[in-house]
Predict the structure of Gfo/Idh/MocA family oxidoreductase.
Amino acid sequence: MLERIKLPLRGALIGFGKVAELAHLPAYETRRDFQIVAVADPLPERRAQAQNLLPQVRVYGDAEELLVRESALDFVDLCTPPRDHAALALAALNRGCHVLCEKPLTLEPRDFQALKEATVRAKRALVTVHNWKYAPLLAQAKELARNGTIGKLELMEWQVYRPAGSGGGLTAWRQEGGQALGGILIDHGWHAFYLLLGWAGETPAALNARLVFSSEESGVDQEAEVGLRFPSCQARLFLTWRAADRRNQGRLGGHRGEIRIEDDQLVIALQGQPPEIRNFPAKVSTGSHHPDWMGGVLDEFLAEIADPGQRRRNLAEAELCARLIRLAYRSHRAGGEWVDLRLHETTP
């Protein structure tokens, strides 16, 4: 049964870095069902920028003060570095707020358990920003893979090439393992895993991984190769922060043909037919913020808020992404051996 909700939903941005300013805020400004009324950020210049862009917004120096003083909030949107996500999400849920959170939500099983319990107790939604599935090119690739255009899906490949220093943030927190929780496997691997899950429509049974680190002590992987075995198909990922250029590409292969993803093109090549090329106005690799993809994220968030029956679907997807990342690190430490998901971490 749908819940009756009063629109617009009143919310706060916690963290006002580049992803908040250039992705989340532009999306909210196109909506009538969401309204940002408060912002928290520890940096005075970022609070000033929030006040400049949103003259009516109330600004705070930390999230705790915001949560205490903004007692009428419907939701919070967490745009801080990953280290703080789980604690802030739990605090907001305990204050009765729905929560939208940048990825990764967390990597820790105990955090997921606490967050799931909090969503049930508070009767609130918790949604992680899985924005890449709303990129028009990638959404169309999923539709083609799932509707039988290429026949039974047999192979998925996805590559992410980024030069050193990519990321687009105000600081280099992505290169700090403590704040980022890891390296490219978390920053881009999280996106890659939920894309693969959507394309395959099933959960992998095993994976292996080999990583390259900036240094043994850093905890920040610069490159990752991951293999996955699904019940019905296989997948290969390659992610790097050491490329000469910036691009994404991939391939979805079936027994009747394949779909090639060429950053701003889909090439549909079916057996016995000339290839069909579909062009898109922007490369999926352009920029780091993608405000035009956030509309789908906000629709997903609103759906979980309004319909208790849909809650924790996104949370389950996020939990599986985190589990795959943990097991990929485990595989790397074991020399790249295959890890059977049925034998490892079956409970939180």
Summary: The longest strand covers residues 153-161. The mean pLDDT is 94. Residues 75 and 98 are 4 Å apart (CA to CA).
